[in-house]
Amino acid sequence: MANKTTAEKLATIQKGYALEGATIELGAALIDGELHKDAPVRLPLAMMNRHGLVAGATGTGKTVTLHMMAEQLSAAGVPVFLADIKGDLSGLATAAAGSEKLLARTQSIGQDWHGKTFPVEFLALGGDGNGIPVRATVTSFGPILLSRIMELNDTQESSLQLVFYFADKNGLELIDLKDLRAVIQFLTSDEGKDELEQLGGLSKATAGVILRELVTLEAQGLEKFFGEPEFDTAELLRTAPDGRGVVTCLELPTLQNKPMLFSTFLMWLLADLFEDLPEAGDLDKPKLVFFLDEAHLLFNGASKAFLDAITSTVRLIRSKGVGIFFVTQTPKDVPADVLGQLANRVQHALRAFTPEDAKALKATVSTFPLSDYDLEETLTSAGIGEAVITVMNDKGAPTPVALTRLRAPESVMGPSDEALVRSTVAGSALLEKYGTAVDNPSAYEKLTGKTAAPTGPAASGAPSGTPVSSGTSAEADVDAEARRIEEEILGRPSSRPSRNSSGRDGAPERAGTAPAPRAPRAPEPQRQSQPGGGIMGDLGGVLGGALGGGLKSMARSVGTQLGRELLRGMFGTSSRRRRR
User: Basic and acidic residues composition bias: which ranges (predicted)?
Assistant: First the structure.
């Protein structure tokens, strides 16, 4: 290493980064203290689904680096997801103004710089910010991710999985936190004690602990993050009319108050993408690049089940055309099993002020290939906007390590004007779809016998506040339940005539007229279950009786199948789209 001349080092880097195909331009190499714009450092677009790491001490330029990469990905037609921790990334929607200092820097590295805007979609977790609200149902979020937010131990997490199993098996839709609370309250009540015993492994005491943690979440205001309409992660894969990839910025203005929720929600987005996307193999460019900022929050205090699921997701999602870049301070923030899968490395400067810092520095150096640099010295002396880089080349081998002066973004390095953000959100096609929360009938209504009051344009049935007839005839109740299940199975309004409270047939509803809201019957877990088991099996029996004895067996079979449709992914997640 010490015997190589500057020219030899330069030739090594030039040869190592002479790549074929489309690339992301990262900057120009610094060798022996000199900048060489004839030695560009770049990353093959086709290798961005091999995942990566952007690391470095606070203030060294990590956010600007992912900003610059996002711009080029968008220009290449690749959608990008960014977690906007500090609000700076909204500047992608505003063209930057070139200064004399900026132009001098860009010219020195061979960058042809022009101020540009990029297509940006602004989201906000649960509407906590200016962006379009992002929500998930409790059912799709799943027990493993929810346990992470509630900070449950392994035993409690296993117990929560049993609660989800019970709800799935019995057709109890867990849409928001009150639904999950209702299911747990039912299982711990005298009425539900038989069901609790049948679950096995779920003690009443543990269920009580979970219930208390759930109430704590509600007290912290986290109920607004769970509900409908649920965000469809396919929205992250869109391109603009001009072919550029849409950059989705998720606002996180209160991250410091909810760090666990933030990191876990990002993992839900990834898990949902993983479950929904088909296998794609090796592509010329990824379908999506996902920048996961403050990655250490994802792993702090994580259970083994959670870590195993992250590792598997990172390993397997590559074949679905999705690239993940973890953004954090040091590589040691990322578990070894995950770090080993991050082929593309952009390492900004590290500090060595304490013995712990020095230890982290040595560990970081050990993760790089052998190079012509003294990496311990280089990593502690690199300036702002400089980084040590090695990536996977177009043949699947690591490129030479290169200290690089990075390109400058062409949009504003800072927040866009708030009025621009608001106008962008107001003009978004997603606002009508996700802007208003709805409350459709689910587990809470089924278990309490109350009628849900759907709200917003996505709600089903009649408007909130519509009077509900409380018929007293058991025959009318059975008929109403049969009509509801028939509509659910066939996907169209029931053709059966309605029955009034005295049990007499009424006139059939006119085509195109929405049926009046009905109060869902509370399940009766203590009655003898029909073959097929659980509430869905019982409902199948109700449907069979209402439609005629000859159809009873078929109807019960359909009811059982509905109860078995819910399949959960490796995080215990389940998309409602996959259940349709």
Answer: 480-490
Cα–Cα dist 435/122, whole Å: 12
What token pair was written down for 427? 């003009």
Strand runs (DSSP E) across 223-267, as ranges?
Answer: 247-251
- How big is the CA angle at 485 (ends 481 and 490), to the nearest 5 degrees? 150
Three state DSSP letters for 33-49: CEEEEEEEEEEEHHHHH
Q: Average model confidence (pLDDT) for the chain?
A: 80
- What is each CA distance from 419 to 130, 317, 339, 415, 473, in whole angstroms? 10, 37, 40, 11, 57
Q: Give whole-number Cα distances, 570 to 309, 330, 341, 535, in Å.
A: 6, 27, 18, 26
CATH topology of domain 7-127+240-416: Rossmann fold (3.40.50)
Place of tokens 């002066």: 405
Q: Which residue has the tokens 């590792």?
A: 311
Both tokens of 125, joined, read: 């977790």
Nearest to 384 by CA among 355, 413, 342: 413
Rounded-to-integer distance, Cα 454 and Cα 459, Å: 5
Of 340, 304, 360, 324, the C-alpha closest to 147 is 304
pLDDT tens track for 320-334: 999 999 999 889 889
> How big is the CA angle at 423 (ends 417 and 425), to the nearest 5 degrees?
105
pTM of the model: 0.78
Tell me the pLDDT tens digit for each residue of 163-186: 999 998 899 999 999 999 999 989
Q: Tell me the C-alpha distance between 266 and 246, whole Å.
A: 18
Taking residues 555-563, report their average pLDDT: 37
Asked if 564 and 533 touch (Cβ cutoff 8 Å), the reply is no
Is the peptide bond preceding residue 229 cis, with omega within 30 degrees of 0? yes
| Per-position DSSP letters for 140-159, written without gaps between them | HHHHHHHHHHHT--HHHHHH
